[in-house]
Specification:
The protein has helices at about 1-15, 70-75, 90-100, 180-195, 210-225; strands at about 30, 40-45, 55-60, 80-90, 105-115, 120-130, 135-140, 150-160, 165-175, 200-205, 230, 240, 245, 245-250, 255-260, 275-280. It is of the alpha+beta class and about 280 residues long. The protein has a single domain (about 20-280), classed as Deoxyribonuclease I, Chain A. Strands 1, 2, 3, 4, 5, 6, 15 and 16 form an 8-stranded mixed β-sheet that branches. Helix 4 (about 180-195) runs parallel beside helix 5 (about 210-225). Mean pLDDT is about 90; it is low at about 1-20.
Length: about 280
Amino acid sequence: MKFFVFFASFIFLSQNAHSQDDKGVGSFWFKVLPEKESLLTKGSSTERELKSKISALIWNIKKAELKNWKKEFLKFGNGKDLFLVQEAYETDVFHSTINIFNGFEWNLGASFFYKKYANAATGTLVGSQVEASEVLVKHSPDYEPIVGTPKSSTFAKYPISGKNVELLVVSVHGINFETTGAFRRQMNQIEKEITKHPGPVLLAGDFNTWNDSRTTFLNSLCVKLGLTEAPYKNGDSRMSFGGYYLDHVFTRGAVVNSAEVVADSIGSDHKPFLLELTIH
């Protein structure tokens, strides 16, 4: 219920939507860096290429706030080749958890930094045992009202064993308490980067598609880009608002062998996705 009250309050307060030219009152608590300074890389990879059969964990982790998060992240992440995380947050528990995965490179696209918590960053994360050949962070063109912070998307490219193309992985957190126009601008920004990439794509995360116009636009955009939504097991267990699902997984140039939503997970307010795919 608190989410819906909070959501309604933001909609009421955001009638005069602003962009990055108006940072909002949140500038007292939050610091936003330019995109080119927002990539934070931790760890070191041990592999040179992804195998053509790939397993992935995709999850909005709610800033690792809930007590079951670490236990579940270790369980669901065991043996995974890729991690696509939203609301990653550089707390002690977060760092101690990802450090357990030996030989991984973690690329965090910071949306903003918490000034009062040692400038700890939060944003979208991509992790792999393979060193990314290229990593890019994009901030949403529009900022969330009141708090004055953007949402981030992290793009990472990985070589694939036996293939002459790379896999583009995109971890997305969609703009939330803003207009459909703001959502479209962010998705068009993502479209631009995917259009440049001729190879396979994994696009996933919390898109905040909480109404028909957002959902329809995202689906149309993915059709345009040749992306197909994964056939989820337990798909109805995803977080929803007003009958619309917020989290999605899309692929191109790959066969999805399985895509399960872990319905009984309690480590976050969002449910994790366990994905198995094979690159063509």
